Amino acid sequence: MIISTLETVPGRSVIEHLGIVQGSTVRAKHIGRDIAASLKNIVGGELRGYTELLSEARDEALQRMIEQATSKGANAVVNIRFSTSSVTQGASEILAYGSAVVVE
Amino acid sequence: MEILLHNVDLLVVLVLLIVGYSFGRLAEWRHFRSIRRREDEYGDLIIVTSKTPPAMNVPPETTLVLGSAVISVDYFKRFVANLRKIFGGRLGTYESLLDRARREALLRMQEDARFVGATMIFNARFETSSISKGAKQAVGTIEVLAYGTGVIPRA
User: Fold this and answer.
1) A44 CB contacts (<8 Å, ≥6 apart)?
2) Which of A39, A57, A65, B135 has the most CB atoms at less than 10 Å from its CB?
3) Average pLDDT in the B123-135 region?
4) CA distance A42 to B75
5) Do A2 and B63 touch (CB under 8 A)?
6) Is there a contact between B24 and A43 if contact means CB atoms under 8 Å apart?
């Protein structure tokens, strides 16, 4: 599976478009991490717990997107975009979407 | 001194301000130093926002590369920014926060690209979101995601 933010796959032409595929996940913050983060808020700097949390969530969103593309019979997802939104306070939704295509 | 001893709240705020100012400054200075060092290190890995990679004799492999960072401002800067909000104008304290976060995210994306063996990153994009939105006290924590397509030349 080729995943890319470009519109095409270099050197290979798109044979078929299979439409949009997306994967999303909603994550809430861990209470322990929240306490550590609020302490870190006083001195500033990177909140590693959150960086990890969000990158795990993003991996899962990507994975779900890839699963959907595979089930449609695609071998590449092009023009991928990410979007993050906060659903309620302390929870955020991470969305990955792109176009499923078949390349030769 | 008398006033301070009678108003514990004021004392707490003052201590937080001092702690935030000193440690925050130190942490930021260290972070910027590390960012500059790594920017020199990854300087040869070009990041481009254009959509089409240059024509190569042998079509390269492409793959998604990502980098993200969650960074928050310190208590002192948040305090200064809140004062600033009364009059409006430039919020210098938040500018440095965003600068740090963006550059850090870019560096992590470059790190990821180097790991997979890419020599260039095409169609790079930023995604910024405020995680602490809505929370009363915790303003000023942002997440920046940088993503793009790593171009891996084939021999």
Assistant:
1) B20, B23, B24, B27, B28, B71, B72, B73, B74, B75, B77, B97
2) A65
3) 77
4) 5
5) yes
6) yes
Give A21 to chain B, closest Cα distance, Å.
16
Q: What is the mean pLDDT of chain B?
A: 86
Under 8 Å CB-to-CB from A7, ≥6 apart: which residues? A78, A79, B51, B52
Q: How many CB pairs under 8 A join A and B?
A: 135
Strand partners, A76: A2, A101
- Residues contacting residue B95 through CB under 8 Å, at least 6 positions apart: none
Which tokens in the block code for residue B134?
């809505």
Contacts of A34 in chain B (CB under 8 A): none
* Amino acid at site A64: R
Residue B22's identity, in one-letter code, is S
**CA A18/CA A95 separation, integer angstroms:** 19
Lowest mean pLDDT of A28-37, B33-42, B61-70, B91-100, name the range. A28-37
Amino acid of residue B21: Y
Q: Do A92 and B129 make contact, defined as CB atoms within 8 angstroms?
A: yes
pLDDT of residue B90 exceeding 90: no
Structure tokens at A9: 């796959």
